[in-house]
Hints:
This protein has about 425 residues and is of the alpha/beta class.
Amino acid sequence: MTFKCGIVTGLAASLLATTAMADIKVGFIGSLSSDTGLSTLRGAEMAIEELNAAGGMNGEQITLVSADTGEDVTEGVKAYEYLAETEEVDFVISGSIDDVSLGWLPRMQEYQIPTLDTWTSYIGIIDMVIEDPETMAPYFMNIASDEALATLYINFGADVLKAQMGWESVVILAEDTAFGEAITGLVTDALGPVAGIEVKEIITYDIGTVDFAPIFSKAQASGADFIYQVSSVNSQVISSQYVKLQVPMAMTGVNVSALGLEYWEDTGGAGGSISTLSPIPSVGFELDPASQKFVDDYQAKYDTRPKIPHFNGFNAYWGLKQAMAAAEEAGGFGDVKAWSAAMKKQDITLEKDGKLWLRYAFWGDDEVEEVTGRTYPHNARFDLTAPYEDAQPSMVVVQWKENGDVGVVYPPEYATTEFEVPSWVK
Length: 426
């Protein structure tokens, strides 16, 4: 009898120990072979290490599991299902590109797992939050959506491309993706009416394109003053060919490969003069002390690319901490509505030289952004009107120079260098 009682006591102790050691499980979804995906993964890893060192979340340690999307929509759906059904994660942090996020979103709505997108900026997802707030309650996007991105670029078009450079017409070269379609639509609708720049032609290309010579020839034939490119996949190809072919038109736009320090090496040094919109922090962007510490710790921990995380690595680092803080307030991730309500209140403000520099916060459900006149529930807070007192600008424009230097050229408050036309363009 004593022996049996000892077994029961041992089992009870074991169960209690297991309960006490229960973990909070975070699932990463994204490409494990891309700088974009690794930026989010590593930002999440660093945040979890710091949180666990400080006692975890409500005394529970946080673990991380990953699911590779390979930047493929079908694989992305499978990856989300794996995290939900096999790993039974409490929270998902995503470094997915737009098309992949759109693929797994129906699964998120079904499983109702709190999820944070750190890279995807598709405005259509925020529209889904507006139209279906109940099933989209678990979803947050802590990067300014592409409507805000386009608004900033239209200002750049009016202030620099039109007023400073005197350019009056543009030809758009856009990849055939959801991201490409969204940005093209926003720029087309607003670049002419607001910036006074006529869109001469829109040329859409497949992301597998390896020979851009015919496309550049078609762009030249349009008679436009400059090229606006929209490229999130294999962007280094169009960049290097533009430089090697010395296309006699300036080219700007949205080029994801140019967002990382590896861009110069990836293009074989043939990436000069390319300018691109970038969420912040970006390459060439001055950092506040807290962000600089994150980069220093990152470089001490990782010795493979990306050399510094892309913007979504910063988003993952701060966003995961916010998600855990919201879970502490909500009593865990199980009550999605309670967690969502707590997540909306998360607000981290970072200062540089005594003024606001970066802010990780979210728009309220009914808040109307004054420039666009619309709401952005569950989207990262941004400011479209200088001086930037409420939040940082939605994006900045960075430019790679022909000598390999890179800096911010717009807006003026964050600029570290001047916008330049390629030396071969007259």
